[in-house]
Amino acid sequence: MYKFGKSSKERLSEVHELLQELAEKCIQKSPYDFGITSTGGLRTAEQQRVLFDTGTTHCDGVKIKSYHQSGKALDLIPYIGGSYTWENKEAFLGIAKTAFEVWDAMENKQGLHLHWGGYWRAKDSNTNMLLDINDKLGWDLPHFELRSNPQNNTLNIS
Ligand SMILES: [Zn+2]
């Protein structure tokens, strides 16, 4: 069983309470260790803009706001062999499966729905983010967010 380090805990404390509950329960069940990096929790418009400028997001923080700016998004990054890794897709999948199991079992969801970036298909503006796993996964594997509408899941990750 894994647990969050100090920095991940601090970042987690700034996001929506349902994401906190989700992450706390998820890490206890997940087959992979994971954490929250410096940009993975709550972001200011300025922090969002910096990410936009590096091309890692299509949300500029002003015209298009990220769910990270309202605390309704969280990025979970696998922590393997002593460091964060964005290369291990099995780990991302394992974490996502666990996250949805936990989410499904949570009782009061406040009418919100869990969305996962691994379901998002690449768009033209994000072709630099295309992930090559037989074109099956979306482009934002660490990303979870809370929306008022259900996600139209097109993948079977079971
Ligand atoms: Zn994100």
List the helices and strands and how they pair.
Blueprint (H helix, E strand, L loop, with lengths): L5 H7 L4 H13 L4 E2 L9 H10 L18 E3 L1 E4 L2 E2 L4 H17 L7 E4 L26 E5 L11
Antiparallel strand pairs: 1-3, 2-6, 3-4, 5-6
Helix pairs in contact: 2-4
Zinc ion binds next to strand 2.
Query: Strand tally, please?
Result: 6
Mean pLDDT: 87
Percentage beta strand: 5-15%
What topology, given as strand order, has the largest sheet?
1-3-4
Biggest sheet layout:
3 strands, antiparallel
Q: What CATH architecture label applies?
A: 2-Layer Sandwich
Radius of gyration: 15 Å
Identify the bound ligands.
zinc ion
Low-confidence sequence ranges: 123-134
What's the domain count? Answer: 1
Ends: how far apart? 21 Å
What is the number of helices?
4
